[in-house]
């Protein structure tokens, strides 16, 4: 079976780990990673979501932090701060830095992000086909009000420096209209048996991937069921900081709110199925009234067992939807 | 008094430390550093001699190693090697990396190497005016024979990767003919009271600086005495690895050999005075026959006291030559 996952960073990676542990021996997993939170800092091209997926699946992630490398040191970052480099708010670890150096060096040599990602994955062997959503430059900017004036800042600055604690006025995904799917991305969607949206941020992770017009079209055209996992349990985001992002854009912070934002595939949206937390079971009917099949299961990926069970539940729902066709 | 020093990395820096400890309160020291061993690696512009001077005088050097930063870690370098990046033979420390990142970032923004050096020195406060010899790209390459064929490799590769253990067939200083002195360099020479050549490598450190035509002209024109310190004591280089470089170019490995290579200023060369080691005193006459005033003093900079005494002896010889005019 061919399983294709549209993924952000931390939540998506953890989900994919479960998928890899529970998949059948012949199953192949392709991950299309968000690149809209890529950023140019210190003269380096940094791809946080690609790296989080690669490090997590390749065994190099710092598990407690959820991002960056194990056994990491922070000497270059400390020095940059001492030099007065303003961007030193970014979590630039010394080991991680090597990945950015290789990526930047290769891009300057004229390679594409897809090619660089393949080279980096030769080392990490993530056990999936890891593809950037696009080889074009796409960068999410967040509109905030600062001293009464609207200001657009890069998503990473909003997320890390401001810790997502400032109201969001708008989200601008720069370059998205001119972005083409990276090689292999469209085929991975149209040729999939199942497409999965893991519990990644609907606005800044899943949103940009689905906003690449070629990807959007493929998601509409594929015969595979598209099944998503709610990133909201009860009234809060699973990973905390997404709330301001959602409310600022008028999305209700609930499994239903995000489902409504994504929309039913039958009416031009993204979803055939939607997994919500068992505690949100009462929302099932409202979600199904949107034309999306809902199933309530435990969503917390608190350990390997719960993560694996969520992966199984996701595949179960997908196969049910497949059979129903 | 205005003292201008033409410097390579380790030997020059140590000598300048002595100069700073022993100079008069109103004396100003300008250092014109070799940039011909600059190299582009990992997409970064690395300036080993500028950094060694800056770190040493700014208190950030690793004293035992003689290059790179104190309290250094090597995680980025290890990772680059794990990625299979061939250039990982270079000693790229994590703290040091930050300097290269700032330099590269600024150069890409369109700043000159002089401007970047000034910015970096705002942090390091080296106590001297530190100037690159040129803002233009100049890179020393070493011709070696490999499998019967002549090959030109960057000096850093020869020095670090091959540990200078391979016979040198030729030295090519790429870009030197088109290089102009950096801002302030010519004035620092023509306006100096004393010009000093510390015990730096005559071929790859002092050589390239003096080979910039505008600098060569300024060294010929200045009314200041030009006094050098021999990098050779007895029959060996003070810092070891220079021997192959000298013999490959037909220079006799002795204080006299290097003096003859530099030549007397009175006949178009570089030197008015030349300090040789006390143990080489018997060479005094031969050096003076070249038109260069020689003085035999202890040259080993084994601790602060001996280094300071060498700085005093150098200034003494310079002032004697000044008085004699």
Automatic annotation (TrEMBL), chains A, B:
Keyword Transferase: yes
InterPro entries: CofD, CofD-like_dom_sf, FbiA/CofD
EC class: transferase
UniProt keywords, alphabetically: Magnesium, Transferase
Coiled coil: none
GO MF terms held by the record: LPPG:FO 2-phospho-L-lactate transferase activity
Gene designation: cofD
EC number(s) per entry: 2.7.8.28
Protein name in the entry: 2-phospho-L-lactate transferase
